Amino acid sequence: MRRCFPIAASVTAAAAAALLVSPLLATPKPVPARTVAADAAPSPDRWAAPGPHGVTVTKERVTTFYFPSDIGSSARRFPVVIWGNGTGAVPSNYHGLLRLWASHGFIVAAANTRYANSGNQMRAGLDRLAALDRTDGSPFEGRVDLARVGAAGHSQGGAGAINASADQRVDTTVPIQPGPLASASSLHGPALYLAGEKDTIVAPARVRTFYNASGHVPAIYTELAAATHFTPAGNGGGFRGITTAWWRFHLAGDEQARGVFFGDGCGICSGSPWLHAARNSKALQIPGPNA
Questions:
Q1: pLDDT (tens digit, 9 = 90+) per residue, 65-101?
Q2: Distances (CA, A) of 81 to 65, 100, 228, 251
Q3: Which domains does the chain have, with CATH numbers?
Q4: Domain PET hydrolase/cutinase-like, which positions (predicted)?
Q5: How many helices (H) and strands (E) does the chain have?
Q6: 282: left (phi over 0), alpha (psi -120 to 50) or beta
Q7: Whole-model pTM?
């Protein structure tokens, strides 16, 4: 994985030079209507395998899009995930993970930047999708669900995801081992904070600090056993299933994914490989399966 990040120490150094977006608060949007029968305490691994859609990848100057190949023949709109890379990385360094999300029915707009901390390039991808949704002949014409948007990123891009979530269009956020230059007050929807047990670049305690500052929204924290800072690169490693399940529940109304995060004995609450799982008071108010 080291080839994906030529200078590992630059994650912290470059993040320290990035700009911080001013925080913006708003009333949380409602959780979408549920569409699938509930399952008790499923493992996140259920969502680690590819979904039912083939995947098409197109690269523009600012954004690389990963999306279901059958989008044009569908009569429905597809939720969106905007993505920010770690320092020095590009979307292809996370190719397997971004393809996975697209295969489960999401349009992924990955910023073509090696320095995603501000979140600006991530939001530019969302702006571009909004325009393409109105463009005759575009593969995205009439197919972009701008009412269901998530933001995610790794390392510096994890901080970028938090900063990009100041945008009122972003409903939920997944910062993976996020860098330090962000403010949790930017969030106005549920957040899933992911750390790596063996991460020596962004230690779990630093990720936990973001979680502790997120009491105004439903927030969950957990760390992946044995994961290093580079585990999310490539196909996402052990972060594949949990991130996909989060999108499936919050953006696609997949009730089977509810029990991964919510209710007594949730799927990440029993220990290894998900360590030190914590849910704040607002997250604990979200009912579990069959509640």
A1: 999 999 999 999 999 999 999 999 999 999 999 999 9
A2: 10, 12, 24, 9
A3: 2-8+49-255 (3.40.50.1820)
A4: 64-255
A5: 8, 9
A6: alpha
A7: 0.87
